[in-house]
Design a protein that fits this description.
The chain has about 140 residues and is mainly alpha-helical. Helices cover about 50% and strands about 10% of the residues. The chain contains five helices and three strands, in the order ααβααββα. The chain has helices at about 5-15, 20-25, 35-40, 45-60, 80-110, and strands spanning about 35, 60-65, 70-75. A three-stranded antiparallel beta sheet has the order 1-3-2. The longest helix is centred in the last third of the chain and has 30 residues, at about 80-110. The protein is extended, with a radius of gyration of 24 Å. The termini are far apart. About 5% of the residues are buried.
Length: about 140
C-alpha cells in the first residue's frame, strides 16, 4: 500500500524535528564534516550524535564517507541546504513581525486603570472591544 504524499511529507518533517539533526544539517551545508568536528561544534554526547546521524543516514539525506579511520558526513543533495535556507527566511519574516508587534506594544506603554476599550458606532452596547494589542478590557 502506497503512503499518501501528505503523510510522507509529515514523516519527513518529523524526521527533521530534532535540534541536533537540524544543527548537523546546518554544519554540512558547506561540504563534508568529520564526526570529530561535528562533536566539537555540537554540545552532545557522542552516542546521541551517533543516533541522530543514523536517523539522517537512514532517511537518505546524509551520506557517510570513510577515509581511513576518519568518518565524515555530507548532505546527499543540495535540496536540503535549500530547505534550510527557506526555513531561515520564513523564521526571519515571522520574527520580524513579532519584533514589530513588540515595538508597538512598548510604544503604547502601560495602560492606566482609567483606560477602557473604546466602542465604535457599530458595536452593541456593553460589548468589549479589543485594543490594538489584542487585550480585552471589561
Amino acid at each position: 500500500m502506497q503512503v499518501p504524499l501528505y503523510q510522507a511529507k509529515a514523516e519527513f518533517f518529523r524526521m527533521l524535528g530534532h535540534p541536533v539533526r537540524i544543527r548537523v544539517l546546518e554544519l554540512l551545508q558547506n561540504g563534508p564534516v568529520p564526526v570529530r568536528d561535528l562533536l566539537a561544534a555540537i554540545d552532545v554526547e557522542a552516542s546521541n550524535l551517533s543516533q541522530q546521524l543514523a536517523v539522517l543516514r537512514r532517511s537518505g539525506i546524509v551520506v557517510s564517507i570513510r577515509d581511513g579511520a576518519t568518518v565524515s558526513y555530507a548532505l546527499a543533495g543540495g535540496d536540503v541546504a535549500d530547505l534550510l535556507r527557506a526555513a531561515r527566511r520564513i523564521l526571519t519574516e515571522l520574527l520580524a513581525g513579532q519584533s514589530e508587534l513588540l515595538a508597538e506594544l512598548r510604544q503604547l506603554g502601560p495602560q492606566t486603570d482609567g483606560a477602557r476599550a473604546r466602542s465604535t458606532a457599530g458595536d452593541r452596547p456593553g460589548r468589549v472591544v479589543a485594543d490594538r494589542a489584542g487585550a480585552d478590557r471589561p
